[in-house]
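Hey L., structure's done. Input below.
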Amino acid sequence: MAVNRDVGGMQVREIQAISYPFFVDVRNSGMDKNSPVVANLPAVTMHWASPLTVDAARTAHTVVSLLKSTAEAWLRTNTDIQPNLQLYPGWVSRSKARESHILAVSVQGSFDLLCRQAFAPDRHADRCHAAGAALVTAATSSLRPTPRAWLSSAAPSSWMTWCSRFRPT
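Output:
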């Protein structure tokens, strides 16, 4: 970012790197240490992430939180992402309400209905699995699985393959 700096009474315009709060950097302390998907990662950076809300009372699936923000995380509804260093010298306005937020979950259970919707009714319906696993992150809000996205195992390489097969709706 271009900023003005006072050097011996002269104003010098220079480019400085600044922290970008909309790229959430989740360190090991915010990861599920029992998950083969994230347990050995040093960090995960999520771009423009939003928190996930899990309603345990409305699902028969097993849901495990994989990534969480720190207790100092804040939410913002204003969509202006340009820095305003005059108004907010610390870069952006931050909410006073701070708390940890869920950013990624693992969902295990039966996905029959979603699987049938992902396939055309007249072809490949036999590829639907009664049970599977899904990885849901807060980084992208409009994703839907392609038919090859269904997993029968939870091996980390399979998870990454599954995640890479999502495409925007």
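The chain has one domain: 22-168. Residues 22-168 form one domain.

-- N.
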